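User: Before I run my own analysis I want an independent prediction to cross-check against. Here's the chain; please return only the structure tokens and, at the end, one sentence I can use as a sanity check.
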Amino acid sequence: MRPVVGITGNSYLIDDSYPVQSCGLHNIQAMVEVSDAAPLIVPSMPGASCIDELCVMFDGFVFTGARPNVHPEEFGEEPTEAHGEFDRERDRLTLPLIRACVDKGIPILGICRGFQEFNVAFGGSLYPEIRDLPGRMNHRMPPDGTIEEKFAHRHNVTLKKGGVFEDLWGRDTVLTNSLHGQGLKDVGERITVEGYAPDGTPEAIRVADAKGFALAVQWHPEYKAGDDAVSKRLFEAFGDAMRAYCAVRIGRQAAAE
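Assistant: Structure tokens:
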């Protein structure tokens, strides 16, 4: 039996009028084709299900990228125009869900906004616009071009010597895409940064004392994940972690019957 993975949904309007909860097709494909998991979209609506219910139902969660940003009130700052759009419902679901998964040992993977959610969930803060900081590059998605050009590799990420990510990939540098405007400011209490862009922007983090897989990256590895060696290895490792957790969960259920 494949592990069941929850993929965070995002609030969108179709034709500027019809509200939906959705996620990118590439996130689903990465889960099916590389992680070998059964994906379900989890609506980012706290009223739809409680944290305890979700933790019982799933063997792992992917906290995806999204256009809206984490609201700065979550880290004690006032919103400005530079902070962009928000999705308060997603904030209210994902931040406590991340903390619950870490405490329970449920495997979690953060991508782009999900990476930022990891940090905020543990007391960290975010810069509203990386490109406005002295010495920083523009990490945003190119405004023009094909989807292949927008998701193309753009810079290296240097990994911490002896860290989890270096061990995962067997190298100290990986080449990634870049499609984000915000980035880590103050690092959360339980967050360890293990990868940096050439301009010093954090790009790979882990929850240091997590009971299970709890890694996040600032880029978008889900894009054609099976065709990229770095992305493929990340999603394979996540799938392995979910299968291990699933086996333990099923064993506990059987023992309780």
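Sanity check: The domain at 4-256 is CATH 3.40.50.880 (Rossmann fold).
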